[in-house]
């Protein structure tokens, strides 16, 4: 059957529109514009300042994901990179030029000609955390005890990022309680309280938290959910609850270069999830991971074809709590941990000590309606198409309006992170 799919779906094969260097960052096309303007400028979508900023920090997010995944190749990965990017972007308000440039390069701001990055970031945050999105994201900068912070840093921080810095008391129990209370308030109690004490010796601690509970445009029939096999590899399987829809309307394409089937399912609030499913359970996911950029995902969004398919997808409820400090150090940000210049924040030498990330992500049968949107007319297929997420896969949660990467996951075992 796969040979038939390859034969009949030549029109839906996805060509890579953006190359990458070994670090995973976008490069110009083989025929670059002689003015040096990035290739994505040619697409009107990226001319909107909010979308352009979303693409930049999403590319940071794909970089962070790649490093995180390489550090734990045999484990699930769940990340909301935007919350980490927000914390770094906010911190850059207090950095002098050398340190600011280091942060801005990591966030791809050096490819944007936007005199008001932080004002545009405020617009982006408002757009992606609108109530109908079901997405919550918050970031916070935490400083060592007794630090005197300049009001010239606090004022723009509040204005653009809607947050105030926190200064530690030095009492680990009280500090943990305060941080937990803040997370609970920001996430409406959707993320469990941490039991990890705030480490001693903190100079600057960045905290990024996020939660998403998706609601499909077309809900699944819970009566069709059943325990089915998920293939961890060629030899091992586990039984997990799998949701099914024998007549699912989805957008589909087969990428012959990456050797994977790509599907996109719409969510309420102008959101969508894109799945990357290798053709073989033994296939390494690295090649898919290395291809991920904002521009590639945007092209996928334009090129996938609407079809009807037999769909099975595992119910997911995942959470993550831990550090992404080492990942950031591997992303040319080591100088922030060594000898940065944050003299716009305080007169005392301070440096980044730790970056924490907490996230929760779930989807189940819940949806807005029982029938597909009337505007979705699937292409007529002469053969039945199956799309079964019953082996390791990668997913990308994307805000359709801005193109922002909100969550990314590598699911090797859907039973838990």
TrEMBL record:
Q: Which Pfam families match?
A: Serpin (PF00079)
Q: Which Gene3D superfamilies match?
A: Alpha-1-antitrypsin, domain 1, Antithrombin, subunit I, domain 2
Q: Name one GO biological process term.
A: positive regulation of neurogenesis
Transmembrane portions of the chain: none
| Primary localization | secreted
Report if keyword Secreted is assigned: yes
* Example of a GO MF term: serine-type endopeptidase inhibitor activity
Q: Which family does it belong to?
A: Belongs to the serpin family.
Name of the protein in question? Pigment epithelium-derived factor-like
Q: Which organism is it from?
A: Enhydra lutris kenyoni (northern sea otter)
